[in-house]
Amino acid sequence: METIVRIDTLRDHVGETVTIRGWLYNKRSSKKLVFLEVRDGSGIVQAIASRSDIGDELFAVADHMAQETSLSVTGEVRAHPKQEGVFELAVKSLSVIGAVIGEYPISPKDHGTDFLMDHRHLWLRSRRQNAILKVRHEIVKSIRDYFDNHGFTLVDAPIFTPNACEGTSTLFETDYHGDKAYLTQSGQLYSEAAAMSLGKVYCFGPTFRAEKSKTRRHLAEFWMVEPEVAFMDLDGDMALAEDFLVYVVGRVLENRKEELKILERDTKLLERVQGPFPRIRYEEAIKVLQDAYDLRKSSGTLVVQSDGAVERRPEFGDDFGADEETVISSAYDRPVIVHRYPASLKAFYFKRDPEDSRLALGMDVLAPEGYGEIIGGGQREDLLENLEKGIEAHKLPREAFEWYLDLRRYGSVPHAGFGLGVERTVAWTCGLGHVRETIPFPRMLNRLGP
Amino acid sequence: METIVRIDTLRDHVGETVTIRGWLYNKRSSKKLVFLEVRDGSGIVQAIASRSDIGDELFAVADHMAQETSLSVTGEVRAHPKQEGVFELAVKSLSVIGAVIGEYPISPKDHGTDFLMDHRHLWLRSRRQNAILKVRHEIVKSIRDYFDNHGFTLVDAPIFTPNACEGTSTLFETDYHGDKAYLTQSGQLYSEAAAMSLGKVYCFGPTFRAEKSKTRRHLAEFWMVEPEVAFMDLDGDMALAEDFLVYVVGRVLENRKEELKILERDTKLLERVQGPFPRIRYEEAIKVLQDAYDLRKSSGTLVVQSDGAVERRPEFGDDFGADEETVISSAYDRPVIVHRYPASLKAFYFKRDPEDSRLALGMDVLAPEGYGEIIGGGQREDLLENLEKGIEAHKLPREAFEWYLDLRRYGSVPHAGFGLGVERTVAWTCGLGHVRETIPFPRMLNRLGP
User: Fold this and answer.
1) How many helices (H) and strands (E) does chain B have?
2) A125 vs B6: CB contact, 8 Å cut-off?
3) pLDDT string in tens for chain A (450-residue length)
4) Contacts of residue B212 in chain A, CB cutoff 8 Å?
């Protein structure tokens, strides 16, 4: 009777004879020995087949085995003579389960990104992609654990939404039994309704943007978690975002050491993600940008755009793009929270700052190292009259928001929340240059398959 | 300094003066006392305001407060004199946070389902809907915990898929930057690719069906979890489904007692959900249906359809609808697994039974009490040649499946998996007659809002 085990449990079987089932990841051989690197999803083990132990016939099988052949290997588990915590298998027998038909497309040589993306279903087998997927899993799990352990109720928001509330240009549309439906860009309005029922809620699902942008931060389909809390104000919202983010990054550091090593991530940078995060007002951020501009101007290094225009000095009312976010966040070694943006930059549902009505009680959390905004949120307008004015000022179809206005008609309360993008968080924690590797099957402007 | 607490922690504050913030759920009053039922999402507490304690002015505020007014109540926590584990508040002061503007639409009188669904954003505030949402949360969490604790990696499948593999009639279509994209009906094929990388995986997200059917079991948008395991066969698949389902139902029984009580669920029926589940072959199930038919025939109670046709005797090759599933499952007090269906009833990717090539190695788990199929799955075809034949036989576009065929070209292994529908599982565990209340904002044939 053979004992079939997973590679990540080999440490419990030293001295025993066990069977591993998996795929050949790599191989090198000499006349007398073949070293098979076998992966099974839980890890990679080196299986050493000696001609004298297994005979010429089996040795030839091992020696000629192609990369990605699926196989069963039986052998004795041994601790690696030099590397602590590493185990290997002294092969007693082996058999091929599924041969490789033709040639495995992904060879050790360098492939272009498009080629790898076309073979995403196979590329996922690489050690590096395995590591990213496991970090992603840890992030998703720690997000859910955080809210579950803090008294939040999961309330899944709908994907199909009936109204194109803020213009259709970035929405995916579908025919819904004769009506038009749009794929959700955010579950927030629904989370607000649920928070009036359950107090503390979160939704967590895929969201969609039909933007024509092709940047390293954008996907057409991405996952977002959106907590919403009744009786919480902007200060509480920032405190929640901070505590939450410290927890998530801490969990990755604690449970995904191996994966971060494979990804060659500098974990010292992640260890600095501790509260309190600096909190700066939008106007302070503008000042930082102005100082940087002034420095470039005095040194004669102002940026000239492709149309010949020279950059102008940042001023109140400017929105931040990736470049501005990088300048602002580079002054800090941990995430920085920017709050109280001009209301003109924010959606209709933000509450105005009672101390300065030009400002919205919104906040963004910018990740360090140029990873930009990973959290955006704020306190919502809770007064019916103000919200009605906001809908009018933004020229939105009032009728579509009647149900949302109901939340201010029937026992309105101060409330706040935020959204965190999973893929950007994975890119940051893994130290990736592009979000396309942070999701198993990315959907981008020019990519809908496999 | 006031101590703000949530209702579910009142037991820790007996004798203390605390503040609760929430909404008025119900009220009754006499000349000297007002009994306010206050809900805050974590529970409901009775706050007793006495005229002599709080004075005429505040007493009038309490006495005239409308249902769903949001308020803050401060008072002393007392154990209920008669009911163990119940706590109440002796009101010292209270204040209105948000008044009710107009009249709250959902009064204690009976409303029709359409009316309630139109006001779903408010209906969610009811004790019963709270209970269902909390059971749903427990089910989602226990599903994830089960797989996370058993070595599975979460691999989110894409929502946008490039091909209408099995006809477009039940697919939602969207314009994807000039191409046609379809919303996923299942992540299985992607889970299979991921299982060849990570061994044991699951995807868990929303899936979509554009069916024109209007039944108590169908939603246009529903959540599905789909585990897939390399080196697992049909027997292993059935064992996994059983162990998994026992765990999920057990978690609900353990952690959602209060909610099941509110829903008046007969928990004895759920306590019987223990392994081993009966496993019957499709052909045995047909025999059960034939016997039931014969009984009806002999007693002269055969069903006459609306077109005048009389039902015919079930035979090999028939598919099961809701009625047949109810007949089969009603013979058992726990879920029953039906396996080895005619291959003609199953999708192209099922492996044929090596002992009877008419049969596919598929299985469905039917819930008791007429709740029907909640799990469907089976062993996948792992041989390239057979899968190619299946694609041809089902007249599917070969090109669209090249990537899927790659999984059989490069180290194919036996593998199996299944899908569990969340909403049907919630309906069953909560004892609901319709799936529409199992998801926060249901999307059905005639319902796209709010």
Assistant:
1) 13, 17
2) no
3) 689 999 999 999 999 999 999 999 999 999 999 999 999 999 999 999 999 999 999 999 999 999 999 999 999 999 999 999 999 999 999 999 999 999 999 987 889 999 999 999 999 999 999 999 999 999 999 999 999 999 999 999 999 999 766 666 799 999 999 999 999 999 999 999 999 999 999 999 999 999 888 888 889 999 999 999 999 999 999 999 999 999 999 999 999 999 999 999 999 999 999 999 999 999 999 999 999 999 999 999 998 888 888 889 999 999 999 999 999 999 999 999 999 999 999 999 999 999 999 999 999 999 999 999 999 999 999 999 999 999 999 999 999 999 999 999 999 999 999 999 999 999 999 999 999 999 999 999 999 999
4) 177
A residues 233-272 closer than 8 Å to B (CB):
none
Rg (CA), chain A: 27
Nearest partner of B265 among B105, B164, B132, B100, judged by Cα: B132
Helical H segments across B24-112, by residue range: 51-63
**Quick one: tokens of A245?**
């983010």
**Residue B399 forms contact with A (CB below 8 Å):** no
Query: How close is the nearest chain A Cα to the Cα of B314, in Å?
Result: 34
Q: State if pTM tops 0.95.
A: yes
Which of B121, B151, B175 shows the shortest C-beta gap to A403?
Answer: B121
The B residues from 350 to 379 touching A (CB cutoff 8 Å) are none
Tell whether A141 lies on the interface with B, counting CB pairs under 8 A: yes
Most A CBs within 10 Å: which of B198, B382, B408, as the mutation test of the A interface? B198
User: Is A164 at the interface with chain B, CB within 8 A?
Assistant: no
Contact B177, A177 (CB under 8 A): no
For B153, the closest of A137, A223, A382 (CB atoms) is: A137
Size of interface A-B (CB pairs under 8 A): 261
CATH number of A7-98: 2.40.50.140
State the span(s) of chain A assigned CATH 2.40.50.140: 7-98
Residues of chain B with CATH 3.30.930.10: 121-437
Helices A127-148 and B127-149: crossing angle in degrees, nearest 10, is 150
Interface residue A124 vs chain B (CB under 8 A): yes
ipTM score over 0.90, yes or no: yes
Residues of A in contact with B8 (CB under 8 A): 151
The answer to whether residue A410 neighbours chain B at the CB level (below 8 Å) is yes
3-state secondary structure chain A: CCCECCHHHHHHHCCCEEEEEEEEEEEEECCCEEEEEEECCCCEEEEEEEHHHHHHHHHHHHHCCCCCCEEEEEEEEEECCCCCCCEEEEEEEEEEEECECCCCCCCCCCCCHHHHHHCHHHHCCCHHHHHHHHHHHHHHHHHHHHHHCCCCEECCCCCEECCCCCCCCCCCEEEECCEEEEECCCCHHHHHHHHHHHCEEEEEEEEECCCCCCCCCCCCEEEEEEEEEECCCHHHHHHHHHHHHHHHHHHHHHHCHHHHHHCCCCHHHHHCCCCCCCEEEHHHHHHHHHHHHHHHHHCCCCCECCCCCECCCCCCCCCCCHHHHHHHHCCCCCCEEEEEEEHHHCCCCECEECCEEEEEEEEEEEECCCCEEEEEEEEECCCHHHHHHHHHHCCCCHHHHHHHHHHHHECCCCEEEEEEEHHHHHHHHHCCCCHHHCCCCCCECCECCC
Helix (H) or strand (E) holding B385: helix B384-393
Q: Per the CATH hierarchy, to which homologous superfamily does domain A121-437 belong? A: Bira Bifunctional Protein; Domain 2 (3.30.930.10)
